[in-house]
Amino acid sequence: MNGPADSGALVEIRGLKKYFTVPHGLLQAVDDVNLSVAGGETLGLVGESGCGKSTLGRVVIRLLDATEGSVFFDKEDIFLYNKKALRNFRKRAQMVFQDPYSSLNPRFSVEQLIAEPLHIHRVCVNERETAAKVKTLMDIVGLASRLTTSFPHELDGGRRQRIGIARALALNPEFIVLDEPVSALDVCIQAQILNLLHDLKDEFRYTYLFITHDLSVIRHISDRIAVMYLGKIIELADHLEIFIHPQHPYTQALLSAIPLPNVDIPRAGRIILEGDVPSPVNPPAGCRFYSRCPSRWDRCLGEAPVLRELSPDHFLACHFPGRVDKAKHIRPRTALESAEL
Amino acid sequence: MDQQQRENFLEIRDLYVQYHTDTGLVKAVDGLNLSLAGGETLGLVGETGAGKTTTALAVMQLIASPPGRIAGGSIFLQGENLLKKSKEEQRHIRGGKIAMIFQDPMTSLNPVLPVQEQIAEMIRLHRKADADEVLKKARDMLSLVGIRPERGSEYPHQFSGGMKQRVVIAIALACNPTLLIADEPTTALDVTIQAQVLELMRELRQHFNTSTILISHDLGVVAELCDSVAIMYAGRIVEKADTKNLFRRPLHPYTQGLFRSVPDLTGNVRRLDTIAGLPPDPTNLPPGCCFASRCNIAEPDCSRSRPSMIEGETGHFAACFKLGKRGGV
Ligand SMILES: Nc1ncnc2c1ncn2[C@@H]1O[C@H](COP(=O)(O)OP(=O)(O)OP(=O)(O)O)[C@@H](O)[C@H]1O
Ligand SMILES: Nc1ncnc2c1ncn2[C@@H]1O[C@H](COP(=O)(O)OP(=O)(O)OP(=O)(O)O)[C@@H](O)[C@H]1O
Ligand SMILES: [Mg+2]
Ligand SMILES: [Mg+2]
After folding, report:
1. Cα A180 vs. chain centroid, distance in angstroms?
2. Which three-class secondary structure state does DSSP give residue A133?
3. Would you say A272 and A252 are in contact if contact means Cβ atoms under 8 Å apart?
4. Cβ of B159 less than 6 Å from ligand 1
5. Which of A120, A241, A265, B23 fits a 20 to 30 Å CA distance from B220?
6. What contacts B69, CB < 8 A, 6 or more positions away?
7. CA distances (Å), origin B132, targets A14, A339, B128, B175, B256
8. B101-125, pLDDT tens digit by residue?
9. What is the largest distance, in Å, between two alpha-carbon atoms of chain B?
């Protein structure tokens, strides 16, 4: 199949691979990912740190080239865009970067930073209009107008992050990749931003790919959630379903490890993963979770599980779903013990 | 450590830190009092911009001047005022006795040095050992934070956000500090690795009696790791208690608002509760309670003078006028 499936998806990711050349081989940051995001949908993406989420996000809006595979945006392959189409795409798809500090030009003031995309795409007819638009955007993300002339290093982490969000919203994009957009914010401002994202979605039918480690946030904001492990999508389901019936042992471990803001609920059955995370450089042939899986089987070593539909709209890449062996939940050697300090 | 020293391991008194900017004098920390016992883990929680990082930098003696200045107060570590130390003494304390995990991992990593070298540098700075030994220790630190040692020769830009964060953690822990200040150490990590890092910090406390200040927005992490919690708003501590009491019965209206804003894991609401209004302008702090303009129980009197900390319940302090009036709550 070459074209996108006729699914009405705004973003359709097909057989996407992104490999990096590193000193000792090829690092498979994203490996054969298939995903689609419907117009107006919020797809949450979670997974271990280093599993390829940011890389996937960058490829999907063509900040990085793909090694293989395609991304269809509104039914067109973004890697086949000509210059004009690419320019148009740059307006329609935006990204809020994970590291708010290093993604902002330190010599620009807050106003200049937010005005930059407006200038590049010549959105406003004159400086007055630009200034007014910047003011509106600062209001939307809750940046006080006294900060207009401040520089990023003069601001705290939370305000820097809100500049990134304002920049992404500046061009009224249809699709936004949000890479940890609220992780530096206190829970109160976090709630304000999440409410804002909801409102924008209701009003303008924004489509989001939302990357975060915060599972209560992702559950709240997403329609569907995809779980990634070492370059691959291993589970995909409705946002509530995945919390109620997690099937992949990694998803189960992840959900069991959420720290709860409550001192009276006793922690039950935290699954602590043992074993090494395999290297993304020349990763093992079978299931990539094998080395840490509490319910692994011989078959998992030889044959990599593919993502398939387990029950309606619940996709899973595991040969033996939902059978975590409780006996394996033992305390692992502690980090200090193993490092022989 | 005798009893007295253990009780007052770290004592910050009336700390004022200000930044000179084009738009005015930013009063980032404005009369802050905080103490930490030996071996205690304190969670420092608060609005963004409340001055948490600034407080940490003041303890580290790393406030950049200009634009920053410690305008008043004292910081005692085991009875000695850090603000009275010479530059040389301060440098020695930093990294050896006190270590900090910085909020922005990229700003504390050197982009042109392999990550294992950066850990080794820290070890060499504080301890004599031969090159092989130092490198081995550096690689051990990497595996301790869950990074395969063979990736030690790579550069920061080749690592994901969370991996960079773990390198920063490894650097901070390399010298077994007695006071660890961790500024949002786990926000860039997934919960399984976060659990490992928290476990590591717990072990440090057990083995080396490390005292820790954990700055975090994640109330779950705070509930899990901290013995006590301090809530910061507009440059001051507005509530402090042991973790159980604070989570069971937050007393300050700001703290109560924070708890209401957290999306929970069982409900399915579309809109989250928020606190209306914006925090005050730090260049122009109001004379009264800084939270009054956003507080739903404020009275006109609240805007007249600054509330001081009141012991609402045994060991549970909050800076709220209404607390006294409510006679306990
Ligand atoms: N420019 C690069 N060169 C080499 N390797 C890279 C590069 N960018 C990313 N990688 C590697 O690709 C893998 C995936 O990185 P990525 O940043 O996508 O992870 P992530 O899932 O976003 O992690 P985190 O949650 O920690 O942000 C990691 O092993 C990382 O080291
Ligand atoms: N170098 C600087 N120059 C000018 N102002 C600064 C500087 N550093 C911090 N500030 C200001 O000082 C105040 C406190 O900042 P700080 O970084 O300590 O906040 P924080 O509590 O750590 O916030 P966050 O949770 O968002 O990281 C903020 O108003 C910030 O804008
Ligand atoms: Mg990332
Ligand atoms: Mg900070």
Report:
1. 7
2. helix
3. no
4. yes
5. A241
6. B17, B18, B19, B20, B63
7. 47, 16, 12, 17, 53
8. 887 777 788 989 999 999 999 888 8
9. 67
Of B47, B162, B220, the CB nearest to A259: B220
User: Strand order of the sheet with strand B24-36?
Assistant: B24-36, B10-21, B68-77, B80-81
Helix (H) or strand (E) holding A335: helix A335-339
| Residues forming beta bridges with residue A35, ordered by sequence position | A13
Q: Mark yes or no for CB contact A102/B104 under 8 Å.
A: yes
φ, ψ for residue B29, nearest 5 deg:
-125, 125
Q: How confident is the model at residue B278 (pLDDT cuts 50, 70, 90)?
A: confident
The CA distance from A5 to the nearest CA of chain B, in Å, is 31
Quick one: closest CA in A to B227, which residue? A263
pLDDT bin (cut points 50, 70, 90) of residue A341 is very low
Structural Rg of chain B based on CA atoms: 21
Q: Cβ of B121 under 8 Å from any chain A Cβ? A: no
Show the tokens assigned to B261: 């804003």
Sheet with A9-22, edge to edge strand ranges: A25-38, A9-22, A68-73, A76-77
Q: Quick check: CB of A231 below 6 Å from ligand 1?
A: no
Residue in chain B lying closest to A144 (CA) = B278
Smallest Cβ–Cβ distance between A188 and the set B244, B268, B275 belongs to B275
Q: How far apart are CA B50 and CA B67, in angstroms?
A: 18
Query: Does any ligand 1 atom lie closer than 6 A to the CB of residue B192?
Result: no
The nearest CA of chain A is from the CA of B76 a distance in Å of 26
DSSP H or E segment with residue B261:
helix B253-261
A268 or B313: which leads in pLDDT? B313
Exposed, middle or buried: residue A72 (CB in 10 Å: 0-12, 13-18, 19+)? buried
